[in-house]
Prior knowledge:
By secondary structure, the chain is mostly helical. It contains seven helices and no strands. The termini are far apart.
Amino acid sequence: MKRFADWLNQPFARILHEGLGLSPNQVSGGSFVLSVLAALAVAGGRLHAGLGLMAMGQWLDGIDGAIARHYGLGSPRGERIDTLFDRASEAAIFLGFAWSGLAPIELVLLSLAAILLLTTLVERTGIDPGAKRVLLYGGLWFPYRVIFALIFLINLGGFVVSLFKADIQFQQRMDALTGDLDTIASRAARQEDAERARATRPQPGLRPWRS
């Protein structure tokens, strides 16, 4: 899917990078600006305009990755910046929905918390259901209270699954070391006790000196 999206975005990526000289980080910044404008539109009661600006921001958010991959500009720092812009964009848009009264502030904050929790493990586990801004379009047909409840539950569920996967990965690394942390710690303790016992044990053939 990512390759297909990159193929679709390749002409636009070429225009933005080769024609305008924009870097992936600059495109990510442009995506964030559109997200802030979308948040302001939603907060001002212009839902359709807000969703349109949000869609444009998400489109730019896809192009920055296409530029990075096509021109070999990807880096761990760039990925962190992209993630930071994504979370900031979601925070701005979600708060716009809360400000407009379309969604309860409690559900909005819970949704953001679940997304942030999941983000802490995405790099390690690769699990990301992607149920964030994209679900907001469903508010055209369903109440936003339901939409934000879904965002919260899906991302919280993704976080729980990620915890299990991270634990399994950790146990596999420990198995590769022929034991888990408790086993390694107990072996170290036994070895230390044995060395201490050898150091205090009388040497063979020697008698203790007496006055």
